[in-house]
Amino acid sequence: MARIIDGKAIAAGIREQIKAETAELKKSGVTPGLAVVLVGEDPASRVYVSMKEKACAEAGIFSDEHKLSADTSEAQLLALIDQLNRDERIDGILVQLPLPGHINETRVLEAISPLKDVDGFHPYNVGRLATGNPLFQPCTPYGIMKMLEHVGADLTGKDVVVVGRSNIVGKPVALMCLAKHATVTLCHSRTRDLAAKVRAADVVIAAVGRPEMVKGDWIKEGAVVIDVGINRVGEKKLVGDVEYEAAAQRAGAITPVPGGVGPMTIAMLLQNTLESAQRRARR
Ligand code: NDP
Fold first, then answer.
1. Quick check: pTM over 0.90?
2. Bridge partners of 224?
3. Cα-flanking dihedrals φ and ψ of residue 70, to 5°?
4. Are 53 and 94 in contact (CB under 8 A)?
5. Mean of pLDDT over the chain
6. Are 214 and 241 in contact (CB under 8 A)?
7. Fewer CB within 10 Å, N side or C side of the chain?
8. 162-183 pLDDT, tens per residue?
C-alpha cells in the first residue's frame, strides 16, 4: 500500500512556521497584510473567503476584507484595487474568482500590482515563473511542490505527467516540475492515449475536475500520485480525479481527497503574503 501524503498535517506544519515568522516580523514593526476582495454572493466563494480570513487571523496576519455587492461596477472594483495597490499596510491582494459576468476578469487581475499578486496570476508573475525566476508562485501548484519536497521526491530526470492544462494548476505546476529538472508531459482533453502516458510516469499530477478519471491500473508501481481534483458526487461525498483505492495499491505515495492538496492551497497563500511582507521589511 502507498504512503499517504497527509496534506492536512503538512499544511498545519507550514502554518505553524508562518505564525512564528510573522511574530518575528512584527517585532521589526511590519505586520503582514492581506486584502481579500469578494464581489457578489456566490456561496462557495463566501466559504473560501471566510476560510482565508480565519487562516490569516490564526497566523497573526492582518486581513482587510472587502465584501462588495454583485452590482459593483468594474470601474468601482478597479478603483478599490488601485487604492489597495497604494496601501502600505497591504502586502497581498486577492480577488476571489469567479467575478460576476459584467466584470472583465483579465482586466481586474492585471490591475493588481505584480508586487502584491499573492495568487500569482498576473502575467508578470506567470512570465517570471516561465523564465525560471519566480516572484509569486500560484498557491495550489506551490503547495504541490511543497508536498513533493516533503516526501523527498527528487524530480531530477523523472518523468512527470500532468493531466490538465489550466492557468491556475496544470500549466504552472508543469513549469515548476521542469524547473526541478523533470521531463514533463502536459496532457489535456485532446491528448491521445492518456493511459499510456500515465503508465510511464514516475509522478502523476491530476488536475482535471472529473471524478476518478485516472484509473488505478494506469499507475506505475511505486509512482507518486498527486490528486488535485475536488469532485462532489451525490449529496456529501468528495472524490478526486484519481481512482484512489486502486491507485493506492500500486503507488509509492498518494494524496487523499479530501485532506491532500486542498489544505495546502491556503497555507501557500499565507506563505506568499508573509514572503511579500518580508520583502517590504527589507526595502
Ligand atoms: P479546469 O477546468 O480549468 O481545467 C481542466 C483541465 O482538464 C483542462 O486542461 C482540460 O483540457 C483537462 N481535461 C478535461 N477532460 C479531460 C480528459 N478527459 N482527459 C484529459 N484532460 C482533460 O480545472 P482546474 O485546473 O481549475 O481544476 C482542476 C480540478 O482541480 C478541479 O476538480 C478543481 O476543483 C480542483 N482544484 C483544486 C484546488 C485545490 O486547492 N485542491 C485548487 C484548484 C482546482 P482542455 O484544456 O483541453 O479543455
1. yes
2. 203, 253
3. -60, -20
4. no
5. 97
6. yes
7. C
8. 999 999 999 999 999 999 999 9
How many A from CA of 261 to the centre of ligand 1? 14
CB–CB of 258/6 below 8 Å?
Answer: no
Q: What is the mean pLDDT of residues 87-104?
A: 97
Where in the sequence numbering do the catalytic residues fall? 52, 96, 119
Nearest one of 283, 276, 17, 282 to 146, comparing CA atoms: 17
pLDDT band for 114, please (50, 70, 90 cuts): very high
Nearest one of 147, 222, 219 to 177, comparing CA atoms: 147
Give the pLDDT band of residue 235 (cuts 50, 70, 90).
confident
Which contacts of 11-18 are long-range, i.e. CB under 8 A and separated by 24 or more positions? 11/143, 11/263, 11/264, 11/266, 11/267, 12/263, 14/146, 14/264, 14/267, 14/268, 14/270, 14/271, 15/55, 15/58, 15/59, 15/267, 15/270, 18/59, 18/61, 18/267, 18/270, 18/271, 18/274
Region 17-37: mean pLDDT is 98
Is the shortest distance between the CB of 210 and ligand 1 below 6 Å? yes
258 lines ligand 1 (CB under 6 A): no
